[in-house]
Amino acid sequence: MKHFESEPEAAEAIFGPQIKLARSYVQKLAQDSDQLGLLGPRELDKIWSRHILNSAVVAELIRPGELVADVGSGAGLPGIPMAIIAPATDFVLIEPMDRRASWLQEVVDELDLQNVEVVRARAEEVEGGQFDVVTARAVAALDKLLRLCVPLLKLGGRVIALKGSKAPEEILEAQKLEKNLKIESFEIVVCGEKFLAEPTSVVETRLDSSQEK
Cβ–Cβ contacts within 10 Å for residue 118, how many? Predict the structure, then answer.
């Protein structure tokens, strides 16, 4: 078995009773990563801290019963860690690459994640107006991402994009889309401060719930 980052103490606090599922996912991701190009070659040393926990804490922003789409899911990030932590929420992992979509389906089957569906498609091929939340990580700049994701949302829905230090500049660039896409607000939200030395920063874009599409 390949060497990868040891499980940090915070993992059990974040995943609670679901920690065994998280461990199984990490093992499968580490095992198959090279072959499928899921993570960069140096990322196994940070697999827990930079990828799994960084994604899992975003579940703080999700409510039970919501329908969440993870666009460009790739290695299942952030969708699978969020789905493990939030079994009362349904997730649809949208991934256009055949090999990666097949791998995601393997993970869902092996972990028996009843709240996860895998769809092999581009975001623009998925039926619109059905999701409460769309998540994305390392997919595109915010303005391009919103053009892809907003059509998938119900009125008043939210796009939650994991973003780093350039989030304020990306918001400035995306503000020109407010009227066209009926965007109500942008907010930078920090997740996981209680658990992580480097918490996760996301841009939460909320749609206006009062207007017709």
Answer: 25
The reported pLDDT for the residue numbered 83 is 98
Q: Indicate the pairing of strand 200-207 with strand 153-162.
A: antiparallel
Note whether 150 and 207 are within 8 A (CB): yes
CA nearest neighbour of 61 among 166, 199, 212:
199
In the block, tokens 């990868």 appear at 4
Structure tokens at 200: 């996760």
pTM listed for this prediction:
0.94
Domains annotated for the chain, with CATH where assigned, are 10-207 (3.40.50.150)
Q: Within 10 Å of residue 30's Cβ, how many Cβ atoms? A: 19
Asked if the model's pLDDT at residue 87 lies above 70, the reply is yes
Unique residue bearing structure tokens 């119900």: 154
pLDDT tens by residue, 51-60: 999 999 999 9
Exposed e or buried b per residue across 43-58, where buried means at least 16 C-beta atoms within 10 angstroms of its C-beta: bbeebbbebbbbbbbb
Residue type, 193: E
Strands 116-119 and 90-94: parallel
pLDDT for the residue 164 = 86
3-state secondary structure of 70: strand
User: How far apart (Å, rounded) are the C-alpha atoms in residues 59 and 117?
Assistant: 17
pLDDT of res. 211: 55
Question: How many H-runs (helices) and E-runs (strands) does the chain carry?
Answer: 8, 7
Q: How far apart are CA 171 and CA 155, in angstroms?
A: 21
Q: Take residue 45 and report the two structure tokens written for it.
A: 């040393």
